[in-house]
Amino acid sequence: MSFLLYTAKEIIFFFYEISIYLLFGFFIAGLLHVLFPDSIIRRHLGHNTFGSVLKSTLFGIPLPLCSCGVVPVTASLKNSGASKGACISFLIATPQVGADSFFVTYSLLGWIFGLFRIVASLITAAVAGIVVNIFSRRDISPSDGFSLNNIPPEMPKDRMKSLLGYIEYDLLGSIANTLVIGIIVAGTIAAIIPDGFFEKYLGHPFISMLVMLAVGIPMYVCAAASTPIAASLIMKGLSPGAALVFLLTGPATNALTISTVIKMLGKRTAAVYLAAIGIISISLGYLLNLAVARYGFYKVILTHQHEMLPEWLKICGAAVLAAMLGWYYLKILILDKIKGAKDMEGKKAVLTVEGMTCMHCVSTVKKVVESIDGTSDVSVDLNSGKVQFNIAKEGDMGRVKAAIISSGYSV
């Protein structure tokens, strides 16, 4: 079998095995979106207490927000008066693991690794938030600018009506690119790297954890997309603890998040945040390696759980996910451009927004601009970053810019 065919086979294997679990995770995440709107999150977490750190961690674990989608929500928490620790814990816990990534982890690495990943995410976020609260000055004064609290909350029936669109564009759209890349990378690793490679060349597991830490901190990857990569690395001899370090740091830290933390919370908080997540993730990785060695979990981690599902269900899941991805790319690459060109004809105002990376960002910016009195007919293009709209008074443009900036983006 040629190299390209073997690589394609491995890529299809990973896609096939995770599809039905990812769809189930999307469904659970969609229900959470209906039951827990952003307004509830901000109401419970907008306080300067250690209790808010714990709440932000518990709220963040199941929420379906990606690494970039969590940024504007965190900015709103800060504007609502939340402590720096609460903001950091929410910023870490939310993208590290969610309903979709847990089921993908279960499908590829088993229930033991899946549960340990959730516990590790909770510990990482809570401890990092507490450490930031201890070592950073608290800024409890709410911002005088715009807050996402100004956006009128959607009624549950309205969110239920838009559930399918939310799953297709906000959820899938927020991870589509990194998911596809992650599956391709996982398949390529499985095809080109020989078995036992990491044991032979990285030596001590602690060295491999440091390598994964260095790779994971600046890398932009969502929790679901990072899981196939971690699974393929474990198959090639990487220790489960090192894989856990990658899964904890990859989704929770990246260049965009770090720059946002510096801008929003200060350099000192950013330094404490990175140091805390690095030390905690390596410590938890070491504990996982000890548990695996002592209790023989390695075979369970390498034994995929997909054998429990009938083949027809996995085939249906792969077909549905492939169709969803195909429709998503068709819409954003072709249909939305055609519609956008028509919608943006005759608009009075144009702004270029930096920092939008997914459909969740598009939805947030659109809601923010629409919430400003005097704006109407808002159109947002993800590829160009342009926001075009009608505005009643030119003097209101400053309010629109301030609202977008306060939501975590740059104009």
> Got a strand count?
3
Helix content: over 70%
**Number of separate helices:** 18
Shape: globular
Order of helices and strands: HHHHHHHHHHHHHHHHEHEEH
Mean pLDDT: 78
Tell me what you see in this structure.
This protein has 411 residues and is mainly alpha-helical. Strand 2 (375-380) and strand 3 (386-391) form a beta hairpin. It folds into two domains: 3-317, no CATH class; 344-406, Alpha-Beta Plaits (2-Layer Sandwich), CATH 3.30.70.100. The chain has helices at 3-35, 38-45, 50-60, 70-79, 84-96, 99-135, 156-161, 163-192, 197-201, 205-216, 223-235, 240-252, 255-265, 267-295, 298-302, 311-343, 359-370, 397-406; strands at 349-352, 375-380, 386-391. The model is unreliable at 138-145 (pLDDT under 50). Strands 1-3-2 form a three-stranded antiparallel beta sheet, covered by helices on one side. The longest helix is centred in the first third of the chain and has 37 residues, at 99-135.
